[in-house]
Task: structure prediction
Amino acid sequence: MKLTILGGGGFRVPLVYGALLQDHAEGRVTHVVLHDLDPARLSAVTRVLAEQAAGVPDAPEVSATTDLDEALRGADFVFSAIRVGGLQGRADDERVALAEGVLGQETVGAGGIAYGLRTVPVAVDIARRVARLAPDAWVINFTNPAGLVTEAMSRHLGDRVIGICDSPVGLGRRIARVLGANPKEAWIDYVGLNHLGWVRGLRVAGRDELPRLLADPDLLGSFEEGKLFGVDWLRSLGAIPNEYLHYYYFNREAVRAYQQAEKTRGAFLHDQQARFYAEMGNPDAPAWKVWNQTRAEREATYMAENRETAGAGERDEDDLSGGYEKVALALMRAIARDERTTLILNVRNQRTLSVLDTDAVIEVPCLVDANGAHPVTVDPLPGHATGLVCAVKAVEREVLAAADSGSRAIAVKAFALHPLVDSVNVARRLVEGYTEVHPGLAYLR
Result:
């Protein structure tokens, strides 16, 4: 099988390739095509993969190209992991928002809207090309904001595009671990949008174990989300929220922490990766070793400001291993080999959540087989969660409308309607600020 990775010069590509190296079953990927607009980044990642595969028999062949059509033609699967505007764009998203006193995180609030406005037109072009050049390919979308971008692409690819995120998987794994359950044997009742969902139950052998966790303050406070949100708030919710909901529930504290930080997350990653790719310019540098060291630092500092605000301390070692590549490979295997499995994915709603229309992309458990991902029927969300999901989905729809029409007024509306943007005037200044720093938003008129 041929797997094409868009954004193939990206730092996390070796995670995906590492998972492929461990896959020795029939019908596995034999050829990986890396596509990126930056030849130097492609060269650096190709070096890392070559060292990573040293001594591994039958390692998938790797090739690289800057020609998008060449990369897509004949692909069986396409992993889309692009970053429009690069990490400098992410740093600018954060800076412009924080100057207005609102959150600039890359998927949540003003920063997520800015990133979406830059990314959707590019993602739509990719979807159209896939439909023309590789109509039988399955697209697995990694690109953030994952739900929004997946919905944009689904308008051209239907259910052949599926979005993934490792946050729900990591959350379910942590809950199962503290309850002494095997995560592979647990059914996770999770529902929401990407980076906006809640675990409402965790069933083992037909029994919901979540009430036991919520009733034990010591157990509840012993893992990442318990430390991040606090025991009392989780017990009030009666559910365990995705970690990204910390930006909503503790927004004022999160914004203040980001404003006081020496660097924003985007600026930190920009500088860190600039050092990595510069070091890869030295042909004698041990590529695999340097990449591993850089990755460990990246993982350890994830959401550091939020944990500091909550007094949550350092991340547990078990949470430093990533996971999105495992979700992607499990999804690809299930489709390619008809190995039926259950995964939490970003797919079209169909009739899963009655408060949203059928085409709205949501994040829920899905049964996966050779015909794709099929969302599982779930119980309705409680009122507070329904309100937040509907509000954020409405914002996503305005982002799609602005990207489609090029309307500056609709872009302002998208910002102004977001729950974390507190003024229409702030929304107008955000659009002004973002269009000044991002050439990719020049289409807004």
